[in-house]
Structure formats: structure tokens, C-alpha cells
Amino acid sequence: MTVLQKKTHNPIGHLTPEDIEQIGVELDAMRQSVIDTRGADDAAYIRKVISAQRKLELGSRAILLVSFFPPAWLLGTAGLSVAKIIENMEIGHNIMHGQWDWMRDPKIHSTSWEWDHASPSEQWKHAHNELHHTYTNVIGKDNDLGYGIMRVDEDQRWVPMYLAQPLWNFLNACFFEYGIAAYDLELGRNLKTKKRRQSPEFRARGKQVLAKIRKQMTKDYVIHPLLSGPSFLHTMAANATANLVRNLWSHSVIMCGHFPEGVETFERRSIDGETRGEWYLRQMLGSANISGSKAMHFMTGNLSHQIEHHLFPDLPSNRYAEIAPKVQDLFQRYGLTYATGSLPRQVASAWHKVIRLSLPNDFLSGKKKPADVQPMSTVDEPAMATAA
Amino acid sequence: MSASLQYAGARKPSLRQRLVRLAERVTTPLLPADYLDLFDPLRRGADLRGRIMAVHPETADAATIEIRPGADWAGHVPGQYVRIGVDVDGVRQWRAYSLTHGPRADGRISVTIKAVPEGKVSNHLVRRGRPGTLVHLEQATGDFVLPTEGGRFLFVTAGSGITPVIGMLRNLFPVSDAGAVRLARSEPYDIVVLHVAPTASDSIFLANLRELDAAGLIRLISRHSDEHGRLDVDDLTELVPDLAERVTLACGPAGLLDALQQHHDARELPLVTERFRTERIVVGDGGTVAFARSGTEVTADAGTPILDAAEDAGVLMPSGCRMGICFGCVLPLRSGSVRDLRNGEITTATEGETANGGIRIQTCINAAAGACEIDH
After folding, report:
1. How far apart are CA A172 and CA A251, in angstroms?
2. Residue A24 resides in a domain
3. Confidence label for A98 from pLDDT (cuts 50, 70 and 90)
4. Residues B268 and B157 both lie in one domain
5. Rounded-to-integer distance, Cα B124 and Cα B130, Å
6. Is residue B282, in this structure, part of any structural domain at all?
7. Could you tell me which chain A residue has the CA closest to the CA of B47?
């Protein structure tokens, strides 16, 4: 995919500025209808999920105290993997987004929730809520497009390092929680120059990350194993496995959010003076959903409803499934493509892109400069919605 | 979840402290309390909570809620009140209610609530309160209490102002199936109760008061506006001839208390009052935004986000996307009202009523809706 502004066929060329503003009005109304009906049932939902997840984690860690016995090892590891996934995705990610701040419960609040993850909540919130959700899919501004270690768009300049990006992607998947911690810390950028390395702010944040990592690792690889007595090594292995499972699963799901084919990217200048309707439109086109069972939706933390999440990041996650048909209908009425597919299909599509773009553009077809990709608007035009 | 407690002190940690530290290392980033709360939220050491055990209707609009408090409940002196946090439609609301019993043998506490029109919490508890519900509590507090050595008193109460007084009277004069009980410790108290209500049926606890009056334990003067007309404080000396020899304790609406204050000040008579609602928050358009920690005051209009107004005045503010999606600008609203510029929704914090930390609001999409105070 190349940025929308450079495509021969403009997927939004048929929309007038009035259409785009009307999209904004309709989506604002949809958001308000969820807020108007938000109440006791929603609060009960998140409390139930938190209670169940904590009991699952407690039970799994208790079983692992005798992880020497293979059935205990398997059961405990499976339970702990699921518990870690739910805490990170359905609970942590959503609470830190402010989705549950409306309850005014100081323990279930974006300002106080510290998640079970190597990256400190505060740093993750900045990188994710503020940067990724504001600059979604804008090349050069949204670093989630490749995390700085891969290129996922034709308009990202190719350098030889990217030849190994399938390997970087796989390594990132295995150690995803540390990958995210490094990413939120902007480690690559901040280690480049001496000035950045020594900046007091970077050093303070670095210390914060190291402290969090230390506590997490001590818990999983020292204390819990020690408490298991003779099952020391088995518990250590169980926890490592659970962390790995969580990393692989969450990495796969997150890749599906913006990497599968069919997701649009945007030029940096195109968001200058962006209206509310245009912001909504960029979120709609820059995200992809996963279709599947209720269990799948739950285990992805409802990130399977990525489009709905990007339109309404602060609405409770349990409501995305309910508004998805209305959002899909909106896409259809305005002649837009609702990017979705099954989990295996979307994951494969994302990996395919990673592999394909590890090579320079059109490397395999031998073309020097791609002939069929003509700029559809000059770089001087700011607004996104220029009719072809 | 708060960060784990800092251990400050030169002494070696006790075994208990060591075990707690170990437990914290296993539960990180949560605290052991977060897991224990799943099983026993009323245990010693937990945040103070209570469980509703029973809901007794008193009148068409009022009910007494009986609560079993957590193990750390420190008890109360009759006349004091308790702040209760209850989830209504999913949102945690805090209100203060007088305790309507003396200390009970079964350790339970009770509050009597009158459902006020438009009252979110009062209507919820009175009409939809269910036994088994968990509520949040703060320790009992308040100075509206009787001295322990006895004396001569006049209670002036109106409407739900009777609640702290009933707590004191029930403590002094418990009522059993055989009738009111005379206790030796209650002998030194000579009490007159002047109770005002719109109609006879509106009087919560009227039967209780009449019983004590019939037993000669108190002297009850009932005034119902529909029968006797509105109470004029100048009639007080007529109703209570020995007014000058009594200490007056009054609890009720601001109008009555203000009139009483004027009346007693003019005659240099002692008066103790308890006010339930300190001030009514009036929602307006724009207003002054006071920043509690920096001491700055900023005037903002109805269409300007608090974030912008504050930054223009030189206040350093946390911020993020500046469009309401990232929650990077959240600050606690201590008192006053703000209006969400996206959909007009009003958020109001009332000092003394709202949770201690205030209500956390996004400053980039909220404008002042009257005078407000932000904890920053």
C-alpha cells in the first residue's frame, strides 16, 4: 500500500466535503447514543472481568506451585497465559484508554492503572493514546507503522536493514513486552546521540522502565519459582512460557490492526487543518478488523473491532460489538471498504506485507519506478478529500 | 492501585512486614489487597467498606439502610455522620448521611435517607437499595453531638434534619417491645424537641418521637406547616418558655438555620447547627477557574476549554492530543461545574460531598460552567 494521496484510484474521491462532515455528524451521534446508555450493566461487566481474571491468575499461580507434575504445569501455564492476555488486552489496554474513567472508581481509572507488562503505564499511554491514536497511519508521525524496525508501506524509504525484517518481526513477537517498552521509551532515537542519551528526561524514563522490568522479572523468574520449592525450574519455565504465549498472541492481534492489505496510510501534510469528519475518515480507512467468535473478540481485548476502537477509543470495549453493524452500514452507504477478515487471514496478510516490503518496491517485478502509481494530487494540496 | 507502601524507619522489619513485602513482590503491579478484596472486602486492613444488610421503609419517600461496616470501623458518637460511596448507574457517588442509631450491639450502623426530587443517590438507595450491595465508607465524623455530662437542650429540626437527633435520642432512650427504657445515664438530660415538617405524614420518626414524649422522656413540639403554618423563629420563646436556659441544637434547611442564627445571636443564646448542603452549585456559562496548588485564578468563557484558558494565563498544564481521545490532560475537579464542549454534558463536584480526590476531568474538552476549583 502506498499513501492514499499518491494512489491512482482515490478511495475517497467520490466524497464531497459535505459528505465527510456528515460522516462526522453521524459518528458523533453514534458515540452519544452509547454514552447515553452507559450504566450499571457496563460497570458490572468490567468488574466481573477483573474479578475473574484475578481469580484465574491466582489459581494458575497456585497450581504452578506444584508445577513439577506435568498436568499441573500444563494447566497452570495455560491458565496463566490466558490471565496475562486478558489483563493486558481486555482490561489494561482499555482502562488506560480511559474507557472506564466515567465510573469514577479510583482503582479502575486511566490515571491509576498499572498494567502487568514491562512498559510502565504512563509511558505506554503517551506513545499509544496520544501519538498513535492522534496520528494514526500518518507516515513519518505514527511510528506504529513498523515500530522503527520494519517498513510496512511503499512510501517508507527502503534501507538494507529491512531485508531481515521478517526476523525482526519474529523476534519482536517473541519478546513483545520488551519490544513495546523499548518502543515507548523511543530507545532507538534516544540512543543515537550523546545529547539524547544523557538528557535527564530520558534517563529518568529509562530508570522507570528498568524498575518496572525488574519488578516483573523478579515476580515471574525469582519469587514465584522460589515459592514453588522443588518445582523451582518448572515454575520458571511455566512463567516464561506464559509470557511468550502472551507476547505472540498480542503481537499477532496488534499486527492485524493496521498491517493487513486494504488499510490506508496517509501523507504527513494531509492532516494539516484536518476537520473532525476527516479525522474520523482517516481512522475508518487506517484500521482493519478481525471477524470471528465472541471468544475471539474477548481474547483480543475487542481490538478485533479495531475500526470501532479507533473511531471511539474512549467508549467501553464491551460496546464495540454492538455498534459494529451500524459502523459497517455507514461504510457501505458512503461507498467505503470495511477492511475485515478471519484471524488467520489477517495475520497472514500482515506477515505477507512484512515479507513483501522487506525488499525494495517492485523489486521482484523488475520495474525501476512503478508506472501505475501516479500522484493523484500535488503535494501542495493540504486537504485529504480532493476529488480526482 | 497505589504504589506499595514506603517503609521508612531505621528498625529492622518485623516478620509480618517482611511477609507483606514478599506478598507485594508476588502480586506486583497489584497489591495483595487487590486479591484479598475478591474474597473478603470487609476484612481488617482493607479500604473501609460496608455491606447493606437491610432496607426498612419509613415513609413513602424515606428508608433506613442498615449497613454492616468493615472490621476497621472505629465506631461513632450519636449525632455524627458518615460519608457513603455508592455506585448509581455504574458511577461512584458520595453523600454524607447522619447515623440514626447509637452504637448497636450487633455492630451495624444505620442511616435514614429521604428521597429528594432529582436526587440521584437518595432515590437509588430508597427505591432500589438491595441487601448484599457493597458500599464504600469513611469513618464517622462531625461535631453535632451532645456533651457527655448532660444538660438542658432544645433540638430544632426540620425535615431530614431529624436524623442526627434521632441517633442521639435513640442512644439516650432506647425503645424495646415493652416501651421506652429509662437509663440511669440518661437522667442528666432535659430535652425539648421542636420538629418541623410540611405534613404529619412526612415526618420520619414521628412515631418514635411521640413514644418518647408519651413516656415523659422528652417534650415534643410538633409543627406541621399544613396545620400550624410556617414556623416563625420569633415564636420560639412562646413555644419554649425556658429557651434562655437551654442550649439549642438545630439541623435543617439553610433558611431555618440562618433565621435561627440571627435570632439567637441577637439574644446571645448558644446555638449549634449542622448544615447538610453547604451550597447549591449553580451551573453557569464560563466562570473563574481556581487552581488550588498554584493559587492562580483564571477567568474563562463558556466556549474555551479550561486547558487553553489556563495555558494562556501561564499555568503549566498536562496535555496530549487536545481533542479528547487520549486522556493525557486529566485533572481533579474539586468543586464547581464544567461542561463537555462536545456534547454539553455537565460534570459537577460538590465540596464535602464528592469523593475526596475530586472528579477527574479532561481539561481539553471541558469549559467552566460557573466558578470551579481544580486541584493542580
Report:
1. 8
2. yes
3. very high
4. yes
5. 10
6. no
7. A107
Give the residue carrying C-alpha cell 489477517: A346
- Count the domains in chain A: 1
**Which domain does B93 fall in, by range?**
49-137
- Is residue B348, in this structure, part of any structural domain at all? yes
**Number of domains chain B is built from:** 4
Lowest mean per-residue pLDDT among A280-289, B83-92, B250-259: B250-259
Asked if A40 has any chain B CB less than 8 Å from its own CB, the reply is yes
DSSP B81-140: EEEEEEEETTEEEEEEEEB-SS--TT--EEEEEE--TT-HHHHHHHHH--TT-EEEE---
Same domain, B23 and B57: no
Distance from CA of B97 to the nearest CA of A (A): 20
Alpha-carbon distance of B70 to B82, in angstroms, equals: 13
If asked whether residues B301 and B328 sit together in one domain, one would say yes
Type of residue at B306? I
DSSP B211-263: HHHHTTSSEEEEEEHHHH-S--GGGHHHH-TTGGGSEEEEES-HHHHHHHHHH
Q: What is the mean pLDDT of residues A165-177?
A: 96
Measured between beta carbons, which residues in chain A are less than 8 angstroms from residue B326?
98, 125, 129-130, 133-134, 313
- How many Å lie between the alpha carbon of B26 and the closest alpha carbon of chain A? 5
**Tell me, what CATH number does B334's domain have?**
3.10.20.30
> Residue B18: is its pLDDT beyond 50?
yes
Residue B277's pLDDT is what?
A: 66
A35 contacts in chain B (CB < 8 Å):
343, 345
Q: Is B101 part of any domain?
A: yes
Tell me, yes or no, whether A42 lies in a domain: yes
B198 lies in some domain:
yes
ipTM for the assembly: 0.89
d(CA B76, CA B84) in angstroms, rounded, equals 14
pTM summary value: 0.90
C-beta atoms of B1 and A125 within 8 A: no
Note whether B330 and B360 are same-domain residues: yes
Q: Are residues B133 and B245 in the same domain?
A: no
